[in-house]
Write a structure and sequence with these properties.
The complex is a heterodimer of chains A (249) and B (63). With 249 residues, chain A is mainly alpha-helical. Chain A is built from 9 helices and no strands. The longest helix of chain A is centred in the C-terminal third of the chain and has 31 residues. In chain A, 45% of the residues are buried. Chain B is mostly helical and 63 residues long. In chain B, helix 2 runs antiparallel to helix 3. Classes of the chains: A mainly alpha (249), B mainly alpha (63). Chains A and B meet through helix 3, helix 5, helix 8 and helix 9 of A and helix 1, helix 2 and helix 3 of B.
């Protein structure tokens, strides 16, 4: 069960971040030159790969035992609770929904204002935009997957989930940009927040000397608790928003 | 650096501060409970409750 939850959490987090990168790379490729977009994306992927190779062993070497559990747990809580907070605000209508297609359109419009270089010259502005877009989303992916993989037994499911997500996203991106429009991104990001927050709570408590009743099965209880709390927050915030709108009317 | 800070700590200071306070209080409670005390069995739920409180503060939910 821990394997499945880790793989699902890693896969969803990686896929969603890659979709955001894809929106930027597609915008560069369609409005400027595909070569600059591909070169920028590949260069950023290599940079992220180097970061992943360095970060994982450093994390495991510097922290061992309970300290590793606490570091991993707190890192997962930082990412997970932030994704969950944004997810709750989006589902309650207090924040704009996550929409990679809208980002793609906005990025494409912004790029059309930047003049392209003359024929025969490399498109450095396009390269930099694609590189920066992939690098920033990639760093978050690397941090989340590294932290999920750093805990005992986490390497295989985290890499399996991340690998599946990369293949799926690249395949969808290669077909068309239309999949960007159909993805329920806000709901998926909320689920990622739930999974990461659940793992964070579980491992942080283990690092603090807790022996969970039911062992790994306690993950499901913690997940259910966060689901109830976050759904209650969605309803409370949505009701508050409705009351404020009625009072203003 | 600002972008990296936003990536790791998020958009607000309330949430990372709340997590730090919750984990800090949990650490103190573990010390107070001592080895083999109630903390080993119930500490996970206490930490969960502290984190839920931090989450509610970050969302600024008021009744």
């Amino acid at each position: 069960m821990t394997f499945v939850l880790t793989a699902v959490g890693a896969a969803l987090a990686v896929a969603l971040e890659l979709f955001e990168s894809l929106a930027i790379v597609l915008a560069v490729a369609l409005t400027r030159r595909p070569s600059a977009a591909i070169a920028g994306a590949v260069a950023a992927t290599v940079a992220c790969g180097v970061l992943a190779v360095v970060l994982g062993p450093v994390l495991v070497a510097r922290f061992g035992g309970d300290a590793l559990h606490i570091v991993v747990g707190v890192a997962l809580l930082l990412f997970g609770m932030e994704w969950l907070r944004k997810g709750v605000l989006r589902l309650a209508g207090r924040r704009a929904r996550s929409d990679s297609y809208a980002e793609f359109l906005a990025e494409r419009e912004a790029l059309e204002a930047v003049p392209s270089p003359p024929p025969g010259r490399f498109d450095w502005p396009g390269f930099v935009i694609a590189f920066k877009g992939v690098l920033l989303e990639g760093i978050e992916v690397i941090l989340i997957v590294t932290v999920l993989a750093a805990r005992p037994g986490g390497l295989a499911p985290a890499l399996a989930g991340a690998g599946a997500a990369v293949v799926l996203t690249v395949a969808l991106g290669a077909v068309l940009h239309r999949p960007l429009r159909r993805l329920p991104e806000s709901e998926l990001k909320y689920v990622v927040g739930l999974v990461l927050t659940t793992f964070g709570t579980f491992f942080c408590a283990e690092g603090l000397g807790v022996h969970w009743p039911l062992g790994d099965a306690a993950l499901l209880v913690v997940l259910a608790a966060w689901l109830v709390v976050s759904q209650a927050a969605v309803h409370a915030l949505a009701d508050g928003g409705r009351r404020a709108a009625e009072a203003a009317a | 650096m600002r972008t990296l800070r936003k990536l790791v700590l998020g958009e607000t200071w309330t949430l990372p501060l709340g997590i730090a306070v919750a984990v800090g209080i949990a650490g103190v409670l573990r010390l107070v409970a001592g080895p083999g005390g109630w903390w080993e069995d119930a500490g996970g739920w206490v930490l969960l409750a502290l984190l839920v409180g931090a989450f509610a503060v970050a969302l600024r939910i008021r009744r």
